[in-house]
Amino acid sequence: MKHYSIPPLATDPKHVILHCGTNDLQNKSPQELTKETGELCDFILANCPNTDITVSSILTRKDNQGNKIAEIPRAQQATLTESLIDIIATNRPDKAKESGVIEIVKTRKVRSTYAPWLTTDIRCEMNTRDYLKKKAVKNNSKSLHQAYKVKRNEVNKLIKSAKVQFCKDNIQLNKDNPKEMWENINQVINGKGRCSKTTTMITTIKDDLGDIIQDEKLIADQLNNWTKIVKSIA
């Protein structure tokens, strides 16, 4: 308890109200609890002799240790001891350091949504969509689930339209640079740009007459002709 009293005493308060909590109320007699509370009051008066002290209550605190332990990786749960459980329950940094326990840091994967066709307005709509989904799952609300689905469909349409416009602008800007044009188009198709090593093998195409072409050389010739046509139109 003294550990938690030191920060407030740094301000030299005129009055202190103690709300005492203990985890071992069932294992101690009233006399022991009273004695420990008195020692705490003496500690406060030694540091702040002009402070008035009022004891509000002495309560027992029950920590749900099961939930706290569940947050620890399964491989480490088998090595838990009573002292380690106490560290987890009290969340005392000094106890962790004294026992040599390494603090477990939670990590969370953050999804990157960078794309050149995503405007600020679309990102705001995406944030609204994600917020509705989070609230719908948390509250298990049918109306929120429905609102999320509507917003999701709206966002999908906006993204699709933005991709189409991006491709049109890209063809116009890079009509003399086919390499750059196709790199940008590949970024739309598979979400990867210049650094992508993904290769899409085209094994079958249809010509203008609807005939199926499977020969690699003929496929390449058809694609080259299409590129020339696009360039001339642009």
Automatic annotation (TrEMBL):
Organism of derivation: Paramuricea clavata (Red gorgonian)
The UniProt entry, under InterPro entries, shows: SGNH_hydro_sf (IPR036514)
Write the protein's name: Uncharacterized protein
Q: Which domain of life is it from?
A: Eukaryota
